[in-house]
Amino acid sequence: MPEFLKLPGVDRAMIAKVVAGYLVITGILGICGGALLFIGGAAAGLGAVIGGSAGGLGELSQAALEAAATQGTMSESEFASAQATMQAGLNELQAASQEIGGLAGISAMLICFGILSVITGPLSIIVGVGLFTRQRWSRMGTVIVAGLAAVTGIVGVVSGNGIGNILWLLLAAFVAYFFYTDPEIREYLEGKTKPAV
Questions:
Q1: Whole-angstrom distance between the N-terminal and C-terminal Cα of the chain?
Q2: SS3 state at 72
Q3: Euclidean distance between CA atoms 180 and 192, whole angstroms
Q4: Using CA atoms, how far apart are residues 69 and 73, in angstroms rounded to an integer?
Q5: Strands (E), the chain
Q6: Which burial class, exposed, middle or buried, applies to 175 when counting CB atoms under 10 A from its CB (0-12, 13-18, 19+)?
Q7: Cβ atoms of residues 150 and 172 within 8 Å
Q8: Mapping DSSP to helix (H, G, I), strand (E, B) and coil, where does residue 49 land?
Q9: Tens of pLDDT along 110-156?
Q10: 17-58 pLDDT, tens per residue?
Q11: What is d(CA 121, CA 128) in angstroms, rounded to the nearest whole number?
């Protein structure tokens, strides 16, 4: 690792406090955002279910039309006209059902990311509080939370979500690596050195 990335001369207590604040803030935002993602995914899923049931209505209407024709309540021209109108409607329903399939996939993804955020949010808050109080486990907790954030950043980069995810990935990977390898952070969190006043 290049020397400047080892942050020479920077107080490790300050680094731990900044990262702790970052973890608490991102944890709170993760819980709120996760809840919104979950609600949005559920709403999209509900829309997919309602839209999917419209296909069943089209099939029911076709069956009613055929029953009317067999009972002789329609002339051939009325049946042909109604059938053409029905077919146009069914074609629209088919196109809509393809879009609904995409909506169902988006719904599942939103729900998964919402659940992941709601789970990792409290974890980030707990680790952040652990860093503030200099708990021994908080160093590895930071490595794990930052590693999860890096994986999320990779998923965002692969899905084409832009420069924000690249920066998120780099920051999370750096924090995870730094807290894993830096002996001064280890000493500070294990209580071998006194915090700067």
A1: 29
A2: coil
A3: 17
A4: 6
A5: none
A6: buried
A7: yes
A8: helix
A9: 777 777 788 888 999 999 999 999 999 999 999 999 998 888 778 77
A10: 999 999 999 899 888 888 887 777 777 766 666 655 555 555
A11: 11
